[in-house]
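Sorry to interrupt, but I need a hand with the structure work. Go ahead and set the record down below:
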Amino acid sequence: MGSSPMWWSASPPSPWGRGAGKWWALGGPLAVKAVGFLLLAGLLFRVLCSFPSSRAPALQIAEGKCNLFNGEWIPDPSGPAYTNASCRFIDDHQNCMMNGRPDKGYLHWKWKPYGCDLPPFNAVRFLDSMRNKAWGLIGDSILRNQVQSLLCLLSKAEEPVEVYHDKEYKNRRWHFRSYNFTVSLVWAPFLIKSDVFENENGVSTSEVQLHLDILDASWTSQYESFDYIIISGGQWFLKTAVYWENGAVVGCHYCQNKNLIELGFEHLYHKTLQKVFSFIISAKHKPVIFFRTWSPDHFENGEWYNGGSCNRVAPYKKREYQEGYNERVMRGIELKEFNKAEAALRGSGDVERLKLMDTYSLSYLRPDGHVGPYRTPYPFTKDSKNAVSVQNDCLHWCVPGPIDAWNDLVMKMALD
C-alpha cells in the first residue's frame, strides 16, 4: 500500500386487492348476525396481535432511534472545516488540492441521515470529553486515510505532537498535551499474523503467508492501552495468499501452479473476523470498539491494474450505484460476524461497548470523493491524450472530502 501502485490487491478481482364486499342495511335477524360477526372479528384480531411480530424491532428502531447510516448527501455551501493549507497532517497521496484537482464541488456536500441531523465535528467538545483517554485506529491504509481527517479536524482546537513512529511511518502516535489525549495508528492490514514479501515499491516476490489462528500482535499487544478503538478489515484480504492453521498449510487464495486447495478470500475474512470478535469478547479489558464496515471503491471502465478511473464530480443518486461482487460478499460477512458477536454479548453491559460503524452506504454514494489521478501532482493538462496513462486511485479518499463524515459519525457515536 502507501506509495505502491498495488494499494490493495496483488491479484485480479474474484469471479464471482380485492374489496371486502358490500355492507347491507342491518335489521331484524341480520343485525344479530352482524353483531356476532363483529364480536368474533374483534376477538380474532386481539388473538393475532398477541403473537410476537418480526417487524416490531424495525418499527421500534425507526420510531425510537435515528439510523445515522441511512440518509443522503445534501449540498453544503459552507464547505469543509479545513483545507490542505490549514492542516499539515494530510499525506501527499490524499492531498487532492495540492496535487492539482481542479473541481471543488466534491467539498460541498454533507451527510444528512433521514429523520435526524448529524452535527459537524466539534474539536473542542470532543477533546474535552476525551481527557486522559487513548484511541487506537487499527487496520490498513483506509484507516490511515481516516486518521488524517481526524487529526485535521482535531487540530482546529489544538495541534498534536507526534510522539512515536516506526521506521516506515506505518505505526504512529500523536499526543494532545492540553488534554492528555492520544491517537495511535496501528498498522494491521490483515488483523491476523501475516508474512508479507513486498519491497518498498509494493512489488511482491512471494505469496503472502497468513496464519488464520493467530492475531496480529501489533494490535493485540497494545489492546489494553486503548480506551476507544476503531477497527476494520479491507482490500488486503483480496491478495494472493497461502493460509496456515496450527502450523500447517490448509489452502490458499488465487495460488498459481501450486497444489493447494482454493479456499477463497471469503473463507479468510470469515475466519479472521471470528478470531477478532472472539478476542474482543473474551478479553478482560473492555474498551469502546467501533467496527467500521467495508470501504467501497468506484473504478469504472476497468480496475486499478488495467486503466480503471473515477472521474465523476457529483454523488450518486439512490439506487444509481451498482454494487460489485466483492462489496456484496465482504459486507455480508461483516454484518454476519458482527451480529454473532453482538448476540454473544447480549444480556451483559459489554454489548453497549461494541458498535457497528456502518459507513458503507454513505461511502458508496460518493464516487466523486476519491483521489483518482491526483495521487501526485497531476502532470497533464485537461483533455491531454497522455492523461489516460495516469494510474487512478479510486479506493482512497481526498482529504478533506467525504471521509470527514466518518469522523462526524465517530464523534456522534462516542459522545452520545
